[in-house]
Records
---
Amino acid sequence: MSSRPEIDRRTFMKVGGGVLAAGLAPSLGAEARALGGTPYAVKWYPFTGHPDSDTCWSLSVGPDGRIYAAACAESLPGGVVKPVRYNEQRDDLDYLFDLAEKVDDPGDSGRASQCKIHYSFAPSMHDGVLYMATHLSGPPIDLPVYSPWYSWHDTKRCFRGSALLAFDTRTDRVLWWDTLIPKEGCRCLLHDEERGLLYAMSYPRDHFIIYDLRSRKRRDVGRISSINPQALFLDKRHRVWTSSDYGRLVRYTPETDRLEISPGLLAHDLNYQTGWHSVFYDVAPSPDGECVYASTWCPNPRLMRIWPNEGEWPRVEDLGPATQLRDTSFPIDMYRDHCGGLTFGGDGNLYYVASRWRDSKYNPTPESRKQNEGVVWRLDPQTLKREEVARLEHPTGMAHYVSRGAVDHNGDLFFGHVGNHPSGIFKVSMPADRKRRNAHLPIRMWG
Amino acid sequence: MQTKSRFDRNSPEIKAYLNELAHQFVREGIMVAFPTCLPGMTTPITHDESHITALDINSEGHVYGGTSGRQAHLFGAAFHGLTGIVLDAGAVPGSTTTEAICCGTSRVIAFVNGPQGGRAVAMPHLDLAEDWIQEWGLEEPVLKDLGECVPGEPVVHAISAPSGKTVAGVTTRHLFTVDVESGVITVVGEAPGRGHLAMGHAGVFGQDEGTQLWHFDVASGHIRRAAVHLPDGEWAGPLRWARDRHSGLLFTADAAGRLFSFDENKGFRALGRAHLAPVGPMAVVPDGRLFGFCGDEMANLFSCDTVSGSFTNLGVAASILEQRRYGYQFGDAVTGPDGEIVFGEDDNGGHLWLYFPKIKGAISTPLTP
């Protein structure tokens, strides 16, 4: 049984931190796997401009077709997030700003800090704005950890609230900011551009929030459950979808102003799971807008295809497990068994990253291979056939926990990664015959 | 500019803080969130219709309740023997909030508000004592609308008289009674309705104008306005009460979270103060301890030793048995037959939360052989 002891979240961060502690220079972030013209060549871009960063929870394509990512610093007391952008001319990252400074909530405020953006980039195509909303977890500068439950009523310590920023990608200016959700973080964000509305999930209370961009007023529609869904998505009828604790679809219909729960369950392993914790981790829209592809935030994450425009409740197709078999008698670390980064390439195929790990029974890879690997998969929507196309490789650290993926206007793949110090993003160069200009369109409207 | 941390991990303050965080949820006892259904067999009350805002318990230990939301539902529940069920008796047409549930000897009277006004609705006692493990049989309950209590006035609260034959209720301006058996509603007279009512030895107390209570003698039907002066405190908010079934003592809190006991003969006695305000639903267990929730948005459970007046913060509610769930807002509470407390969760997807307090005197130390 090789997967014990497990790596819990704290250990995960600590191990990642060792990379920095060992004095590894950021320049080591050069090409990890010098594959040059090799199809699906992988390159690692560490957030050297923000060496305190330990996670990258958001990576999205902007309305300008360029890749934006969040260099988050949640383990460091008083840590702050800095949005970055991939600069294709320099083949490097540009650090856009210190978000905490922009929203007048500096890291040394004594409150929980503006440490990260968590699946909360949302583009606005008509004006080139990229909306972004912050999340909580980073402790106040003089405390080692932060609990939103414990500090909810503490005016000195409580997180001020998720900050919403409108960043103009045409001028590189922050146009305005507001508090999206007082006291709470924003787990995920969605933009319904036609209606001028942002939708968000709050953390920790798991409330569904609507923000009107015209009036800049927020409305709390109420609680969903306890486990934060990690994604929202939009259908053709402007309905917003997410999931509940018990693996059911949750639908918000603007016309009725109601949150409704589906009778059916999302995909899960019927052998030993009940649907509990089968909440969305990542959801990618099909280019034709007829369906979405989703993965769950649950041990043995499942892939699904969901048809929201069909029937009273959508048809949910179980596409099977995203990761390997394992010993189901032990609750595997969710930082080991993971699937994220779902995005459509210019070739019309779905790409995603699933973790794979050495296991004496189910995956007895040699010691020469890393214990944990991040595998880039390509899924053909027509045949549902899956192929492994690349392995993410970090020069020294981890490469198996991908938060989000996106394709830029050149058709290359990018993945945000969690767990290294500094954290960073991967670029996976698409084979020439699978690239196309403006491959990011139609753009995904949620983080 | 990158910030750097400013603390000493080994300092007593930081160690104390970390210890507090380690015990931020349900510091004593066990909470179990029970869904509004027969788990695995029926569907719970609709997500946005399941804010549990009113509870009562009958002499058999069965809990009756009502919800608020898009529609108000009435339900019965039982958690002893072979039960373990919440039975949804259905939605009350034209109602969006349940203000009170009153168990009578022959049936249950609910008080709801909505577009059709403040109404009384009768619900039969539900046959909950089935074998809910193996097989069961029952008729669907039929709710009976008894009519609007006082025309044009929403119901604020109601409470059963000890006889179980009469319910006393209050709207925003009038006091009324309902005869449980016949369902006849009688407007008794004028009295303001603010907050919950409390049942004393022979009558009902309600919040009067200013800092006073009115008293209604159920037997004579007499209302005595300004019958009792509230003690020094902040009394602008609506009152909540708890009653010790054994001693008959009543408990209430002011808007600042200060708790008082009330003895009809001796008056009010100041106890301690909850660490958050306002104080929400409370209930007293047989050993005299009082448990309740305090604070808005994210309530904390607390206990109060009603003899010494000392308070203990028991943290945020969390259920790890049956359903895994955080609990943030609670609407009502009753004490069960064995001293457990049933809290009604006033939230979307609301559950009944059974709280089994820590046994008094038990010392929480690691077990040794």
---
Amino acid sequence: MGFFERLRKGLEKTRKSFFDGIKQLLKAGRIDEETLQELEELLIAADVGHQTTTWIIEKLKQERDDPVVSLKKILVELLEADTTLNLTGSPSVISVVGVNGSGKTTTVAKLASQFQAMGKSVVMAAADTFRAAAIEQLKVWGERINCTVIAHGEGADPAAVAYDAVNHAKSKSKDIVIIDTAGRLHTKKNLMEELRKIHRVVAKLVDGAPHEVLLVIDATTGQNGLVQARIFKEMVNVTGLVITKLDGTAKGGVALAIKHELSLPIKFIGVGESVEDLKPFDANQFVEALLS
Amino acid sequence: MFETLQEKLLKIFKTITGQGRLTEKNINEAVRQVKLSLLEADVNYKVVKEFIEKVKQKALGEEVLKSFTPDQQFIKIVRDELINIMGRANAPLELKHYPSVIMLVGLQGSGKTTTAGKLALHLRKQGRSPMLVSADTYRPAAIEQLEKLGKSINIPVFSGDRKDAIQIVKGAMKAAQELRCNVLVLDTAGRLHIDDEMMKELEDIKALTNPDEILMVIDAMVGQDAVNSAVEFDRRLSLTGFIVTKLDGDARGGVILSINYVTGKPVKFIGVGEKLDALEPFYPDRIASRILGMGDVLSLIEKAEKELDREKMEATARKLLQAQFTLEDFREQLREVKKLGPLSSVFEMLPGAPKIDVDASEKELKKIEAIINSMTPEERRNPRILNASRKLRIAKGSGTTVQDVNKLLKSYEQMRELMQRFKHGKLKLPFGL
């Protein structure tokens, strides 16, 4: 068997489920050094990252119970958090931020649709005025889910769009404004400043706005996700994460690292293209999915 | 780029400095740390494992070359092996047909549409006449996005009935003939590699267009799962290569090593910005240091060895110790250092280099050289003869002030004095050396 074949075969097996392996390992009921090493590898393969993996393993070593149960317990404890959104503003303002291509616009539309289903009135702000046709993308969603979209032209000041959207919501007594911001790499200083400006502007209109700042992270993201979360948190006070694209083979393990190192909770997960596929985060379910 | 990682590696490699030969024992810790560093860069863990094994075999028993310290030698082995896998040269596009089709595929959000625009612009700059085709009938406004991009660079965009990808592609092949476009850049919808139906659509488009290039677009920030999607896309479509996007961020791009390793297919381009001209041909050797998370020490060493005139440097050192060091020698040294390139680029290559104001230092050096240049040869050899009127002349000639001239003379004097003291044994080197 050629080298590439072998590796390919190996990966084929991995793809089935990283955590199948863990379960197999731990079912034996005893944790020896070799098992721990394999476990370390499996967590790394799920993008949990070296530091958090080491932390998990150290904790597991101290447990006396059945290893599967212990591991579940450790992971659930790590991830568990209050996932309710702060919707106390009138209107409540939710800003959706993240790097390019993480799935912000889709998340904004799905959130809006779900709020509407709960009987809330929603305005979406097309504050991604940079990417070609991002505004149209949100407008198409607006028509699909029958939701107001406030938009200016391409290249307009995103803070002005957010300002208008919040003002519109105020005058029409709408409950929630969701701001779709342009994708930006956390390393671009000016773009991060632009984001702060959007938040400053809405803060002037509504007390405590933005009430939620959701950072959207693609489940396929590796260790850079931790860097993204750290800088977005520092710059714009992120309140929670949305992990998208969990319907692929990626496990989104970097969320564990983000929770462990930055205490940022996951609030929603995306598991498919349709509106219902954005789900409130449930630590038990998430861990169950990881381990099944 | 990011000093912390560079510093970390430097520290690791310090552990094997000062030993003559690389052994199992002295490289173990370094190997472990390189492994962690690669994992941190999101290189797939299986690839890391095999890679590290290879490096170990190569490093063991290796004699440390005279020109390197052991740490440098170890880094060199690691880096050479990285480049070995990724290939040394850039893999260019191979366009054979008329019209030629380039198909872009990948997961959602990897940057296909933007890359399509960039690629079309790149092709036109190469003298071809490209046409953009949008076969993304799924994502809302994806077609509008490509149309806008095309318009901004004045390249035709074909989107047919905007409903059926297969029909759009068919129409595009015809339209290309009519518009005399010789290369079609095909933007497809983002899809998951496990979505059988959607993958089938790509196979159909491939069968219909017989593309010269099928390039998978991959986000540089992707983690361990990258190999799964890359292997699957390759299995179903026989990719010809990859384009890795968003490398303008601080992701270390370990994915480049992984996908190369598991598919054997080259990365052909990298995306380094949001603007449409931010697409570059990929050169593997330039990314190796980034994946390792360190500055380009080796390039600096290689450069220094090539550029610096060893004899001149040695002569200067001799003079220094004999306190015969004149301002002429000083200028000579400045010129040698300058051969390495602007200070800013020298510092970039150094891991853990102190964060000094490079611009200011550079200005300072320029000033010093100007001052020395404005002196007569006699003044350079014997600065003691510099009186007030000479100093004023030099200041005027070099566009500086008398204070600047005095400052230079003072530091020169201090240096000479220090050397004198070494020479006369007033200052002892520590430990009786």
